[in-house]
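Researcher: First entry.
Model:
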Amino acid sequence: MEQGIKRTQRDYSLAFKLSVVVQVEKGELTYKEAQQRYGIQGRSTVLVWLRKHGLQDWADPSGRARSGSTMPKPDSKPPTPEQRIKELETQLREAQEKAALFEAVLDVMRKDYGITVKKPSGRSSRKGGSKS
């Protein structure tokens, strides 16, 4: 990189983000330690990852808990088909991110600790699938 030119924003892979989130949630690092160890530039970047990808309920700086609910308010009208599609797409994206998180955790366990986790026999990884 040329001297005098500094990139102010970095792109991190989802696997990297999930790996950092797992380490912080397991208590191996604080979010500030993770930021320093991995050279993450933004002060709140790791906190944003924790809120978005973490399994714990990370409150935002104002002290409010995040709203993870996609349930409509009881007195509201039923969603339109377009709204329902958006809601389902959001749920699908979150499920895919969780699956990627678990895959990243398994990779870290295998690479860093030599631990392999096998799926229980007789169970299909697909919903609705059966072993007959």
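Researcher: Second entry.
Model:
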Amino acid sequence: MLTDKQLSQMFDILHEREHELIDQLKDQLGLKYEFSQEISGELSNYDNHPGDQGTELFERSKDLALNEHAEKELEDINKAFHAMEEGTYGICAVCGQDIPYERLEAVPTADKCMEHASEQTFSRERPVEEEVMSSNIRSEEARDVDNTAYDREDAWQEVSRYGSSDGPSDLYDDQDSYNEMYPNSDENNAGPEGIEGYISAGEDGKYDEQALDHFRNQKSE
């Protein structure tokens, strides 16, 4: 059971943390700005690189996630204040045993003891779109299948030869030239080779005259 002094200390800690979160949430998302251009300082997005706009989108998404965490912590603090008013603060909501003061110092909003706080289930469900999509550009490698047909990787290699936003730091292997800044640029995609004349021999072992002439012409070139 917490003493009055310990309960007062927990109240002060929660009250101070509450003010910190409220100050953090104020204008954290820049909601006082009407347009996104005012947030980034840009008058127009027409001349901006897509990578710059992607950075701004990432920062905006990160702020939203931090804001969600702060709101959840504020909700837990309000529950702790309510538990103090009811006299149930510091008591496990599952087993009814006292929560150690050391745990409350580490997590002032804790409403369960260590034994029951660890009994959490985590969802391992994956997005439904992964049933038809793969994050691996070469899914054949994941299935250990040697497929030499023209696939989406070959298509991407042809397109990326004309340039992309990737640099040396975006690739896992070393590249000798900026003209090779695409995956597997050293891969040899040779076309079909010409048929040698001796392959055209008949069942009797004699060469077809037309194929033999073609073979001689190839050797003389």
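Model: Note on the second entry: Residues 4-117 form a domain with the Four Helix Bundle (Hemerythrin (Met), subunit A) fold (CATH 1.20.120.910).
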